[in-house]
Hints:
It is built from twelve helices and ten strands. The protein has an eight-stranded parallel sheet with strand order 9-7-5-4-3-2-1-10. Strands 6-8 form a two-stranded parallel sheet. It has one domain (7-321): Aldolase class I (TIM Barrel). The protein is an alpha/beta fold. It is globular. Helix 3 (73-85) packs parallel to helix 4. S-adenosylmethionine (SAM) binds next to loops. Residues 36-261 form the Radical SAM core domain.
Amino acid sequence: MRFLMDKDKIISLLDGTADDWLFGEALRLRNQTIGDKVYLRGLIELSNRCRKNCFYCGIRCDNHNVERYELTKEQVVTAAKYALEHGYGSVVLQAGEQQSNRFTDFVTDLLSEIKELSQGKLGITLSLGEQSEATYEKWFAAGAHRYLLRIESSSEDVYKRIHPEDHSFATRLGCLSSLKEIGYQVGTGVMIGLPEQTTESLADDLLFLKNFDVDMCGMGPYIEHPDAPLGKSQTPLEERFRLALRMISLLRLLMPTINIASTTALQAINPLGREMGIAAGANIIMPNITPSFLRANYKLYNNKPLSDIDLSGFDVAYNEWGDSRHYALRSN
Ligand code: SAM
Ligand code: SF4
């Protein structure tokens, strides 16, 4: 079943006019189309070094209150083995944006290593920011098959307000198109409850995701970081949380077969946030498997959870990649 919703209807649902109906329908539709299982992505935060200066982010390069690190190959391999041994179907390699040849080669090497050690049993997603097409191609050839790059906001005006002048909306869009062209399963997403963001702008974000025909989405509430200049949102945290759940449900209704993550930022606001994201129609969780002594250095926002997630509340599909059904359908 397809839900046809115009922008006014989306705005009214974002305003919370029918939460019980919305959450229930999204869950029912997810279970009917892609099933009720939750898929795991073990998140490995490779490095907090970043060349960018996004106004909202705690690891932006101008924040000198952060101790910078880069995992060694051995540490990444240990984390990947942990994922494999615990039945995680996939890992995500995430980092601040780095564009050196050294970094490109490091990641290429890690991809081959993870492919070999897992004998192809671990799916691999990358979330390493904007790169040249040649780099994306190199990583795809080395075994990465999914890429997450959030557009952050589909409104160019909002994008400009939350980034310095030398960060380009057009480049970000270009990267997303290149990733699709190369053959990746492409994931993008937005932050919810940014300063001066309206529900109309969020409705446009949902329509952007639909029109771009994304395979995966990771979106979550914006959470202030004391060393990041973007500052305070007028939307109370609890309302940002509800808005994020509504965004998940609405996206599920608009795109029934994509993968949608229940993100860590939800858990930062409510201890049961990730469970509630799954109940609102998401189907992916990304437990952090970065070596625990380094997690405090990858602090994107206030109150980011540092401990391991308890998986007992989820109906997990262990040992499965859990690829986006939408991708399979659009590639056939
Ligand atoms: N550097 C890569 C990039 O920007 O695509 C990947 C890592 S970056 C830390 C991952 C995501 O963290 C960003 O896309 C952004 O949406 C999110 N993020 C950063 N600061 C945040 C904040 N203060 N609140 C919520 N999410 C935040
Ligand atoms: Fe760097 Fe990504 Fe943070 Fe922007 S959001 S400062 S690119 S890590």
